Amino acid sequence: MATKKTDQPLSSKEKEMEIIENWRLLFKWLFIFGALTAGVTYALSPDEGIYQPDALVWTLMLIGVFVGIFYFNSDDVINIGLRYLIFGTVVGAVENFYVVGTHITNFLLGVRLYLGPIVLTVVLVYFVKKYFLNK
Predict the structure, then answer these.
(1) What is the pTM of this model?
(2) What are phi and psi of 83, to 5 degrees?
(3) Which of 87, 105, 125, 131 is the most exposed place for a label (fewest CB within 10 A)?
(4) 118: exposed, middle or buried (Cβ count in 10 Å: 0-12, 13-18, 19+)
(5) Is 119:69 a contact under the CB 8 Å cutoff?
(6) Is residue 8 included in any domain, yes or no?
(7) How far apart are alpha carbons 67 and 71 in whole angstroms?
(8) Residues 106-134: pLDDT tens digits?
(9) 78 domain residue, yes or no
């Protein structure tokens, strides 16, 4: 007969890693939610992405700063910067598509504007760590 295995209590290191993973999951979903919110809001705006409610813009910027600090690795500045540049290139290329180009362009523009504070935060964290904290 098989013996029943009892759950071993987690060590403090394992508990810490589990807590970190839970927070990373939260910030991952905040990143996705913010990108989709910014993109859809810009795509559906009545005057082609120019007007946005101030509260939404400030909330997305604040979420972007938190995501930039806690979710993205500051040592990976080049890849995050490349994402931002690629979105800019795609926005420029897609705007000439017939009929749906303006909506796709506005969606991607919203996501790019959401990525801006994230990239800026990651770059600032990188330079603070490198030059001020010597890590």
Answers:
(1) 0.79
(2) -60, -45
(3) 131
(4) buried
(5) no
(6) no
(7) 5
(8) 888 889 889 999 999 999 999 999 888 87
(9) yes
